[in-house]
């Protein structure tokens, strides 16, 4: 019986998910250091649009062939019913698609201040807080599938409202000590 990283790290603290998502976090830190200050050319922007359009059929194909468990990054390959080599290739493929989509979105993101700039600056709050809403939804008696356009539009409106509320100034002010506590006393000053 083979042991995989997911079984070694286990579920506590979601360390397996952190390990799987680590390349995205590192990329985010790297890009956050001014790497996207330039204005992309028209060709780059058209390529980014093509990548996002191509992502739609790719997402459909992936969703029709893989279980939802793949997107949680917390299951061993045996549990996902694939061999280790196949699982590694699938994960690398999912990561490549994710990086391509991140690149495309970053190339299309405006380089000026917009109405959504504040949401982007406070995006850690919706990211960390959405899990509680997802758990509440999972424990509720609400339907698990969106089977009509009205339900889909209602779900999209609820998601936008959740992001708006959790990224708002009052929520950030109240939750800052938990989400972004002051750690200056831990860090050595730069000279």
What does the model show?
This protein has 191 residues and is mostly helical. The chain folds into two domains: 111 residues, no CATH class; 71 residues, no CATH class. 63% of the residues lie in helices and 0% in strands. The longest helix has 25 residues.
Summarize the structure.
The protein has 191 residues and is mainly α.
Blueprint of the fold:
Layout: H1 5-9, H2 15-31, H3 42-65, H4 84-108, H5 117-121, H6 124-139, H7 149-166, H8 169-179
Helix pairs in contact: 3-4, 6-7
Counted up, domains total 2
- Beta-strand percentage? under 5%
| Secondary-structure content class | mainly alpha
Largest sheet: none
The helix/strand order is HHHHHHHH
Uncertain runs with pLDDT below 50, 5 residues or more? Answer: none
Shape: globular
Number of helices: 8
What is the C-alpha radius of gyration, as a whole number of Å? 19 Å
The pLDDT mean sits at: 83
Descriptive tags:
mainly alpha, 191 residues, 0% strand
């Amino acid at each position: 019986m083979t042991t995989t990283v997911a079984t070694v790290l286990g579920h506590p603290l979601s360390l397996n998910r952190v390990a799987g998502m680590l390349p995205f976090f590192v990329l985010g830190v790297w890009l956050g250091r001014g790497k996207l200050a330039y204005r992309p050319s028209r060709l780059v922007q058209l390529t980014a649009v093509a990548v996002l359009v191509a992502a739609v059929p790719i997402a459909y194909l992936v969703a029709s062939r893989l279980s939802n468990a793949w997107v949680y990054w917390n299951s061993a390959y045996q549990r996902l019913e694939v061999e280790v080599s196949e699982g590694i290739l699938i994960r690398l493929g999912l990561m490549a698609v994710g990086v391509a989509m991140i690149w495309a979105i970053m190339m299309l993101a405006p380089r000026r201040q917009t109405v959504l700039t504040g949401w982007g600056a406070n995006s850690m709050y919706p990211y960390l807080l959405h899990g509680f809403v997802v758990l509440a939804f999972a424990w509720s008696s609400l339907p698990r599938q969106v089977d009509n356009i009205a339900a889909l539009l209602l779900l999209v409106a609820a998601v936008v409202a959740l992001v708006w509320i959790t990224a708002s100034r009052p929520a950030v002010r109240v939750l800052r000590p938990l989400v972004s506590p002051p750690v200056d006393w831990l860090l050595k000053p730069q000279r």
